[in-house]
Design a protein that fits this description.
About 30% of the residues lie in helices and about 25% in strands. The chain is α/β, with parallel strands linked by helices. It has a domain of about 110 residues: 2-Layer Sandwich (GMP Synthetase, Chain A, domain 3), CATH 3.30.300. The longest helix is centred in the N-terminal third of the chain and has 17 residues. The structure holds adenosine monophosphate. The site of adenosine monophosphate has 21 residues, from strand 14, strand 18 and strand 19.
Length: about 550
C-alpha cells in the first residue's frame, strides 16, 4: 500500500529559507565589527539579499550543480551564501581558512570551485592560491581589503574580481527557487585532514533538513525564538554544527563573531549583546575561561553552552557550571553533519548530583536518526555494557555514505572508512552503557598500546587538566623498547606555576589512574599544537618527539 501523504514535497533548504523569512522574518543576525556598533540585519533581509546574490551568481554563469566556494568568517554575508547557493541548485563549498595554502588549493581544485566568495580581510590568503585554481572564474570580495591584496587579486589571469555589494545592488529581492530533488548535493565540507588528504563530504538538501530538525529538538540544542545564539564554531566547520539552517526553522537569533575570535572580544560581545547560547570547541572555552578569570565580566545571560569537536574536560565543565554557563557536551564529525550524540542526562538522576555530572561528561546518546554500534578488534559487534571497548560505527540519514570524488584517485568509499554493510567507521573508540550513553576513550590512532593493553590518552589529559597548575595537556604514544608504546605527557603550565612532574604524576595516581598507566615521560611545552579547527594535533606532537624537538624528562 502506498502512503496517502504528500511524500513528493522535497525536504529542501529553500523551504527552510522561506519559513525563516516569513514566520521568523524579524529574527536577528548580528555580526561583530570591532567598532562601536555591530552590523545588524534580520532573517527577512537576509533572505532578500540571498535572492539578490542568487541573481548575481546566475549572471556570472553559476548553473545547477556548479560549486561556489566561500572563504569567510561567520557573518551575515556568509549566511546569505548559505541560502543563495544551494537554493538556486548550486553547491556551497565552505573553505577552511585555517588550512595551509597547499591544502586549501587542493580542496578548491578537488571540489571544482567556479566562484569563490571571500571576505576582504581574507583576500590576501586567497590571492596566492589563484594560479593553482585553473577552474576558478570569479572572485567576489565582501568588505574592505588591503591594497596589496587588491593588486594581487587583480594580477591573477583568467579570474574576474567583483565587489560583493556592487554585484548585489539593484537586483530583485525575490528569486524563483527551483523545486529540487532533495537528494541533490547542497553543500560540501572537507574533513580537516589530520590523517592524509582532506576528504569531501557532500551534504544533501534532505540531510540538512533532517539534521536541522534534530538540532532543534529539546534533547539536542532545543533553542527557541527567545534565544540568541553566539555561533563561534566556524561556518566552514560542518556548517557551524548546523546552526544557521536550524535557526531559520525556529527563529533563534544569531550573534556572529566574524574575525574577532580572541577571548577578549568574545567576552565583550557576550557582555554587550547578551546571548543565551553559544557553541564552540573546548579550546575556545579554555581561552574564555582564562579571560573571565583575569577580567570578570557580566556573562549571566549565557546559560547554555554546546561543546563538541573534542572531549570536554571535566575541569572546564565544572568551571563553567560555577559561572552559571551550563555545558551540554556533544559528539560528531564532518561526516555526521555533525550531530552524532548529545549528552542530556536521563530524567531519573538528581540535578546537580555527581551522577548527573558523570552523565553530562559522556559524549551522550544517539538521537533517533542515528544508529550506533561498537565493533571489537575481531570485527564482531560488542554489547552495550559500559565495559566492552570497540570502534564506533554509525548510520543514518545525515551520515556520509561515501566521500565526494574519492581521495587522490582512491574510491569514494575507502574500505577503512565504511563497513561492507554501509556503516561509517568513525575511527573513535569507546564504550556504550546499557542505557545508551557513549563514552569515547580515544581516537583509534591515538590510543596508547602498552604491553598489549590500551591506555586512554583522553583520560590522562582530562585528569591532568583538572590540576590547578595545568593550563593544557596532551598525551601521545611514543615507542618504548619494553612495552611497545608508553604515554608521553606534554603540559602547558598556568602562569606562575612551577614545574613539578612528580607532583603531577602523584595527582594522576590520586585521580584513579592505574599505576601501570602513569606516564614516566614528561615534557613542558609553551603551547600544544592545534589543528585547523582547534583540536589537539597529536600528529604534530608525535613528529616533534620523533625529531627530538621536545625536552623529555623521566619521572
Ligand atoms: P571533525 O570532522 O574535524 O569535526 O572531527 C571529528 C572527530 O572529532 C571525531 O571523530 C572525534 O574524534 C572528535 N570529536 C568530536 N566531538 C568529540 C567529543 N565530544 N569528544 C571526543 N571527541 C570528539
Amino acid at each position: 500500500m502506498l502512503s496517502t501523504m504528500q511524500d513528493d514535497v522535497p525536504l529542501t533548504i529553500s523551504r527552510i529559507l522561506r519559513h525563516g523569512m516569513t514566520v521568523h522574518g524579524d529574527a536577528r543576525i548580528t555580526t561583530w565589527t570591532g567598532e562601536a556598533e555591530p552590523h545588524r540585519t534580520t532573517f527577512r533581509a537576509t533572505g532578500e539579499r540571498a535572492a539578490q546574490l542568487a541573481h548575481a551568481l546566475a549572471e556570472l554563469g553559476v548553473a545547477e550543480g556548479d560549486v561556489t566556494g566561500t572563504l569567510m568568517w561567520n557573518n551575515a554575508e556568509h549566511v546569505e551564501a548559505y541560502f543563495a547557493v544551494p537554493c538556486m541548485g548550486a553547491v556551497l563549498h565552505t573553505l577552511n581558512l585555517r588550512l595551509p595554502a597547499d591544502q586549501l588549493s587542493y580542496i578548491a581544485r578537488h571540489a571544482g570551485d567556479k566562484v569563490i566568495l571571500v571576505n576582504g580581510s581574507l583576500a590576501g590568503l586567497l590571492a596566492p592560491l589563484l594560479p593553482h585554481l585553473p577552474g576558478l572564474e570569479h572572485v567576489v570580495v565582501s568588505g574592505p581589503m588591503a591594497e596589496e591584496a587588491r593588486t594581487a587579486l587583480a594580477g591573477a589571469s583568467g579570474v574576474r574580481v567583483h565587489e560583493y555589494e556592487e554585484l548585489l545592488a539593484g537586483r530583485p529581492t525575490a528569486y524563483d527557487w527551483p523545486e529540487l530533488d532533495e537528494r541533490r548535493a547542497a553543500s560540501l565540507c572537507y574533513t580537516s585532514g589530520t590523517t592524509g588528504e582532506p576528504k569531501g563530504v557532500a551534504y544533501s538538501h534532505r540531510s540538512v533538513y533532517l539534521h536541522s530538525m534534530q538540532v532543534n529538538m529539546a534533547e539536542s540544542m532545543g533553542l527557541t525564538d527567545a534565544d540568541l545564539s553566539l555561533v563561534i564554531v566556524p561556518q566552514f566547520h560542518c556548517n557551524s554544527w548546523g546552526l544557521p539552517h536550524a535557526v531559520f526553522m525556529t527563529g533563534v537569533s544569531m550573534l556572529m563573531p566574524d574575525r574577532f575570535l580572541q577571548p577578549g572580544p568574545i567576552a565583550e560581545m557576550i557582555e554587550r549583546e547578551r546571548p543565551t547560547h553559544a557553541a564552540a570547541v573546548p579550546t575556545i572555552w579554555q581561552g574564555l575561561l582564562a579571560e573571565l578569570t583575569a577580567n570578570p565580566r557580566d556573562v549571566s545571560t549565557l546559560t547554555q553552552v554546546t561543546i563538541g569537536g573534542s572531549a570536554c574536560p571535566s575541569s572546564l565543565m565544572k568551571a563553567f557550571d560555577d559561572l552559571g554557563m551550563r555545558v551540554c557536551h556533544a559528539w560528531g564529525m564532518t561526516e555526521t553533519s555533525p550531530l552524532g550524540t548529545i549528552a542530556r542526562p536521563p530524567a531519573t538522576v538528581v540535578p546537580g548530583s555527581d551522577e548527573e555530572f558523570a552523565y553530562r561528561l559522556t559524549q551522550g546518546r544517539f538521537p533517533a536518526g542515528v544508529e550506533g554500534r561498537l565493533i571489537g578488534p575481531d570485527g564482531t559487534e560488542l554489547p552495550w555494557d559500559g565495559e566492552s571497548a570497540g570502534e564506533l560505527e554509525v548510520r543514518g540519514p545525515w551520515i556520509a555514505g561515501a566521500y565526494f570524488g574519492g581521495v587522490d584517485g582512491d574510491p569514494s568509499r575507502p574500505e577503512d572508512k565504511f563497513s561492507p554493510d554501509g556503516w561509517l567507521r568513525t575511527g573513535d573508540v569507546g564504550v556504550i552503557s546499557p542505557d545508551g550513553y557513549l563514552t569515547l576513550t580515544d581516537r583509534a590512532k591515538d590510543v596508547i598500546k602498552s604491553g598489549g593493553e590500551w591506555i586512554s590518552s583522553v583520560e590522562l589529559e582530562n585528569a591532568l587538566m583538572a590540576h590547578p597548575d595545568v593550563a593544557e595537556a596532551a598525551v601521545v604514544a611514543v615507542p618504548d623498547e619494553k612495552w611497545g608504546e608508553r604515554p608521553l605527557a606534554t603540559v602547558v603550565l598556568r602562569n606562575g606555576a612551577a614545574v613539578d612532574f612528580a607532583a603531577l604524576r602523584d595527582h594522576l595516581a590520586g585521580s584513579g589512574i592505574a599505576r601501570w598507566q602513569l606516564p614516566e615521560r614528561w615534557a613542558l611545552v609553551a603551547e600544544v599544537p592545534k589543528t585547523s579547527v582547534g583540536k589537539l594535533d597529536k600528529k604534530v606532537l608525535r613528529g616533534q618527539h620523533a625529531a627530538g624537538e621536545l625536552e623529555v624528562r623521566r619521572v
